[in-house]
Amino acid sequence: MKPVYRILFSLLWLEALACNPRIYQFTVGQAPTIGPNDSLLLSWHVKGSAALQIRDYNYPESGTDPLPDLTLLISQHDMTQSYTLHNDSVITLPLASKDWLVIRKKPDLNNNDIVRYFKLIATKHGKDSTRVIQVAARPDSVFDEVGFPTQLHGDTLVAEGLNNARRWGNNFFILSVLPDTGRAMEVSHAGITRDLHSGNPPDYSFKGTPVTGNWTIRSLLTPGERNHQQAIATGLIIHFIIKHK
Amino acid sequence: MAASDIKTVILMMFENRSFDNMLGHLSFEAIQPSANGLRPPPNQPQYANFYEGGVYYPFNRPVDEQLSFDLPHEYNFVATQLIPGPNGKPAMTGFVQAYADATGSDPNIECDPLCFFSSAQVPITSFLAQTFCICDNWFCPLPTSTQPNRTVAFCGQSAIYQTKLQAIPDTGNIFKWMDDNQITWGVYHDGFTFFALYPDLWDQIFLSGKFHPYEQLATDLKNNKQPQVIIVEPSYQDAPHVGPDHPNDNHPPLAVGWGEDFLRRTYQAATINPAVWANTLMVVYYDEHGGFYDHVPPPTFDQVGTGNVAPPNPFMPPNGGSPEPIPYNTLGPRIPAILVSPWVAPRTVVHDQYDHTSVLQMLAEAFTPGQAYSDAVTQRAALGINSLSTALTAMASHAAPPPPPSDPIGFTYAVLGENIATPPDNDMGRSLEAAALQMMAQRPAEVDQQFPLLNNWKAAIDQARAQGAASNY
């Protein structure tokens, strides 16, 4: 690098560090998958002024029906305020630059499968920095899946790995599992191994085991995959019904 | 083959979007079912991306808004995004993994790299795609980032493999080729020019008289003063900005509303003069995918011998010794590409394999028949890259070009370009800012003439940053 560029680079970098709005920290206090009435701790630290926007959307592929109005109870420093969140609307809260809050839904009969967007906006010198955390608020019993990319071992596809505890926490367990459509699979999880066949009813062998942890999925190549390498599945996916503790 | 019928070529290259991100909706909404975009439902296994047990699928972004981060798209991240599957071909399953690696954060359930726009969210792009011709097998030439891909687009080959704070070597630039072949040309820039990053081109920028403010484009076309080849440059997010200027190049984390507005104005300019329009080809394309998911694996493509510098082993661990360069063995991911012209079949999809050098092939066919653009471009053609002329029809449509949708576009104010109190925080931004400052230092009189707003910008950043620095101590 030419000296003049090096000097310019250094100056620009120092100034960038000094002047940008920055989000030092924006976290949820637990895994971002919660039950319908679980509370959630949000904390943040920004350089600049801060604001939080809250908006709900249907969980992916869970339908497009308008979401019913709900009341959110937001607590900070022994004070709790309620806010009504309407379908397709946003709650905006001005915040201190470093603080925390606890948010929970006022208990009601609504049990929708939603993704709640928390958008933190830090503003300084008219320039914004934003960060979005999505939290899934799931019904007590709901469909989901686990999957991994495949490797080919002989004529068997193997997909294995650790299901992310940071996403799921300890609040969900398996009720039943069934394979992805179209192929037989051998599934190992929590010390249990079972063969799952396409078209069979849900298998309850894994009932009560955690969603998280190690999973291994094996499946023989299908005739189509043997004949056409391009058709070999790049991942194997297990569907399951999970329950909230 | 109608390349020789094309008298005016307008090249409009945006930044950093994949085909599925911008045009995946065409098949998803059954607007253009023959386009190889996304198809409902989005949670099909062939679209799955994986990250630590989580399965992530494409999703329609609820609103067009600024993203939390730029998306990773340097060569090492692209290698993760395309990571080979069990058949050795790119599996396209690593976009979420690359995002998590680059941002250091756990990905959201609806993870930004997998988002795509609906037709309503990109009304002008969708209008042009539905009205004219789209190319759904147009790949960026290299599986890496902005600077190498733009260099291939406008030089035919690249001596760099990554984007960083650097002066880019000229490897056969299009301007010299056009000058050597008496082809008239002009660059119409809506702000600072990307070509400032090539010091060898500064004479072209300052002395050729062929770099014009964007506002002059419509006037030149209307008055038959247009050159044969027109390069339209958007206002780059990473470039210096001042006053009400706002970026419109669609580079994440920007929203795309301003880019849609810029595309509409350029289409209106391209069609303003029926006599010129009758022999015009406007190419709307992107430099690379920008880290956005695309479901089509790039084809195998041996880049050895194409004149492009190979990157180090992208999977070499840090401090793992001297990484051996490994030549790219595929093209880069698909990018959105629309051909706007009376010389394309209306409402069609062309499935031929293209990359950015397809434009250079076509220019040679149109303006220097029988004479190739360069050996590197010829080499890529021999490996299966078609000339853009394969998308052209033998007969032109005489129908008047339809007006674009006139509905207001919902703008998300581009805060990244709103304020100049803070310097850029990425390599492209630093490169462009350094080039601007270098130009001002070395060629002040010519900068006054060509980019007068840079003086306002320099004064403004000096003042704003001094105030900003003072307020921080």
CATH class of chain B equals Alpha Beta
Structural class of chain B: alpha/beta
Shape field of chain A: elongated
Describe the oligomeric state of these chains in a short phrase.
Answer: heterodimer
N/C terminus separation of chain B = 66 Å
Percent helix range of chain A? 10-25%
How is the largest sheet of chain A built, in terms of strand order? 1-3-8-5-6
Please state the average pLDDT score of chain B: 91
Mean pLDDT of chain A equals: 88
Number of domains of chain B: 1
The proportion of residues in beta strands of chain B is: 5-15%
Q: Report the C-alpha radius of gyration of chain A, rounded.
A: 23 Å
The number of helical runs of chain B is 17
Cα distance spanning the termini of chain A: 58 Å
How are the secondary structure elements laid out?
The complex is a heterodimer of chains A (245) and B (473).
Chain A: H1 3-19, E1 22-28, E2 33-34, E3 40-47, E4 49-58, E5 70-76, E6 79-85, E7 91-95, E8 98-105, E9 114-124, E10 127-137, E11 141-149, E12 151-153, E13 156-163, H2 165-168, E14 172-179, E15 185-189, E16 192-196, E17 213-220, H3 223-227, E18 235-244
Parallel strand pairs in A: 2-10
Antiparallel strand pairs in A: 1-3, 3-8, 4-7, 4-9, 5-6, 5-8, 9-10, 11-18, 12-13, 13-17, 14-18, 15-16, 15-17
Chain B: E1 8-14, H1 19-23, H2 25-28, E2 49-51, E3 54-56, E4 59-60, H3 75-81, H4 95-103, E5 115-116, H5 123-131, E6 133-135, H6 146-155, H7 174-180, E7 185-189, H8 202-207, E8 211-213, H9 216-222, E9 229-233, H10 257-270, H11 274-277, E10 280-286, E11 337-340, E12 348-350, H12 357-367, H13 375-382, H14 415-418, H15 427-442, H16 444-450, H17 453-471
Helix pairs in contact in B: 3-4, 9-10, 12-13, 15-16
Q: Could you characterize the architecture of this molecule?
A:
Chain A has 245 residues and is mainly beta. Chain A has 3 helices and 18 strands. Chain A is elongated, with a radius of gyration of 23 Å. The N and C termini of chain A lie far apart (58 Å). Chain B has helices at residues 19-23, 25-28, 75-81, 95-103, 123-131, 146-155, 174-180, 202-207, 216-222, 257-270, 274-277, 357-367, 375-382, 415-418, 427-442, 444-450, 453-471, and strands spanning 8-14, 49-51, 54-56, 59-60, 115-116, 133-135, 185-189, 211-213, 229-233, 280-286, 337-340, 348-350. With 473 residues, chain B is α/β, with parallel strands linked by helices. In chain B, the strands form 3 sheets. In chain B, strands 8-7-9-1-10-11-6-12 form an 8-stranded mixed sheet, sandwiched between helices. The chains are: A mainly beta (245), B alpha/beta (473). At the A-B interface, helix 1, strand 10, strand 11 and strand 13 of A face helix 14, helix 15 and helix 17 of B.
